[in-house]
Specification:
By secondary structure, the chain is of the alpha/beta class. It contains six helices and ten strands, in the order E-H-E-E-H-H-E-H-E-E-E-E-H-E-H-E. The strands form three sheets. Strands 1-10-9-8-4-5 form a six-stranded mixed β-sheet, with helices on both faces. It has a two-stranded antiparallel sheet with strand order 2-3. Helix 3 packs across helix 4. The longest helix has 15 residues.
Length: about 180
């Protein structure tokens, strides 16, 4: 993996990149699965990952860190705590109790939805959306639309890994994307 969006001289990037295991043909033939569980097993690499995001967002007046199910739930809460923001889980359908608001998005074959609690965010709040990886950008785009629909200012999307060959960044429109490592 090569660096993306982060100072190429930052010595934390190689540690993060080398801690991500690539599993060929998972979950199906032709897929090169980017496994972040090995990053989580390396306390130094995990800390570096969180620290890089915190350094980026600590002075940007972020009110909300919205984490996309499921791996956004791993990275989002420690970032939110460190910068003094609330964490809002964005979940798959029928996973949140109570009243929810949802946004549908397209998959290769069919559609899916992302949901959050009604009242979890307020108009005018500033948000960062966090996930482990951006591939086609469909989930991030739905998360942006959902938050903007209720008046939130989405400042940026943040991912540990980008698969640039899938051009997910292009689907985000004018939204900035901060990425630590790009697949080569």
């Amino acid at each position: 993996m090569a660096s993306s969006n982060v100072d190429a001289t930052d010595d934390r990037i190689p540690r993060i990149s080398s801690s991500i295991r690539v599993i060929p043909d998972f979950p199906k033939p032709g897929i090169m699965f980017q496994d972040i569980t090995t990053l989580l097993l390396d306390p130094a690499a995990f800390k570096d990952t969180i620290d890089l995001f915190v350094e980026r967002y600590k002075d940007k007046k972020i009110d909300v860190v919205a984490g996309i199910e499921a791996r956004g739930f791993i990275f989002g809460p420690p970032i939110a705590l460190a910068i003094g923001a609330k964490f809002v889980p964005m979940r798959k359908p029928k996973k949140l109790p109570g009243e929810v608001i949802s946004e549908e998005y397209s998959l290769e074959y069919g559609t899916d939805k992302i949901e959050m609690h009604v009242g979890a965010v307020q108009p005018g709040e500033r948000a960062v959306i966090v996930d482990d990886l951006i591939a086609t950008g469909g989930t991030l785009t739905a998360a942006i639309r959902l938050l903007e629909r209720v008046g939130v200012d989405v400042v940026e999307c943040a991912c540990v890994i980008e698969l640039p060959e899938l051009k997910g960044r292009d689907r985000l429109g004018d939204k900035s994307l901060f990425v630590l490592v790009s697949s080569a």
